[in-house]
Amino acid sequence: MNKSNIINFEPKQRLLEKVDSYIESVELFLEEEDKGVPLLLKALKYADDKLKHKIIFLLGSFAKQKVAWPLYQMMIDPDENEEIRHFASIQLSVISPFLQDHQPLIDRLLEDIKSPDPELRLHAAFALGWEGNTQAAIPLIELLYDSDIEVQATAVNALSNLRDDRILSLMLERLEHGPMEQKRTILFNLWRFYSKREEVVSIYLKYLDHEDSDLRFDALVLLATMTEAMEHIATYRKCLGDKDPRIRVLALKELNEASREDLLGFKEEIQHMLSDPDMAVKRAAVKLCKKL
User: Fold this and answer.
1) Burial of 103 by CB count in 10 Å (0-12 exposed, 13-18 middle, 19+ buried)?
2) pLDDT per residue over 241-265, tens digit each?
3) What is the 3-state secondary structure (H, E, C) of 225-265?
């Protein structure tokens, strides 16, 4: 038989075993990177979703230049699992700043966010969201008004990832006038505007008075992540009277971080929570009362 007609065949099992060895040992992958990258890309078509995640993460972490376009192809593939497409878009947003020439990829993604397919718009928008990608700012802003609510939410995430404080005023405008799901997404992304911390905290405090209980709860959760309980004892005390039991529970939990001396100032209010109709509130109140 003519050797030129022999096809080099590597069994699937052997291929996946090699993939496992690379995942277990990054050092081995780096030593064999030239053959490891194409092998991992080849394995993607045989891997289950869990293994695909691991392969994509490994490639995105250590082979950025070589894997950018394969990741892009995976992201735009309508036959691929949606979770995998999303994970590929995340990895693209991570590796794009490090590419020697990311302009061709940016150009392609900017075209994709104009697609009639909302799934493609969504994934492309997320892939464009990385610090310093100012080219994407205006196109992403336009997606804040997209007909698909999930695309709107993704645009909020992507814009926040640009790390441009000038975008904050626009976010606040949409926070006032956008649909409910967009409002919630914006609230959860405001913390990213580091240099505007005081303004962001004031927004969370403002939304503790909002008529929608979900927004009030979100605001309280986020306030707790950005500040110390000692800074807002009066605010948490006020929240003890909120109609939403989730908010009463969280307020009690945060007050656990306050000093005993501060809590004694409204001891009777805390003890009154022991009679709350919600069992979770009662448990949180019992725990706080022990501190008194």
Assistant:
1) exposed
2) 999 999 999 999 999 999 999 999 9
3) HHCCHHHHHHHHHHHCCCCCHHHHHHHHHHHCCCCHHHHHC
| 139 within 8 A of 109, measured Cβ to Cβ | no
Cα-to-chain-centroid distance, residue 15: 33
Q: Return the closest-CA partner of residue 47 out of 60, 38, 35, 56.
A: 56
* Nearest partner of 44 among 56, 26, 32, judged by Cα: 56
Residues 228, 230: Cα–Cα separation, whole Å: 5
pLDDT tens-place string over residues 180-230: 999 999 999 999 898 899 999 999 999 999 999 999 999 999 999 999 988
The 3-state DSSP class for residue 204 equals: helix
Q: What's the pTM?
A: 0.78
The encoded tokens of residue 73 equal: 């192809």
Answer for the pair 149, 112: CB distance below 8 angstroms, yes or no. Answer: no
Q: Which among 224, 166, 237, 153 is positioned nearest to 195, based on CA atoms?
A: 166
Nearest to 72, CA basis, from 110, 116, 34 = 110
Give SS3 for 86.
helix
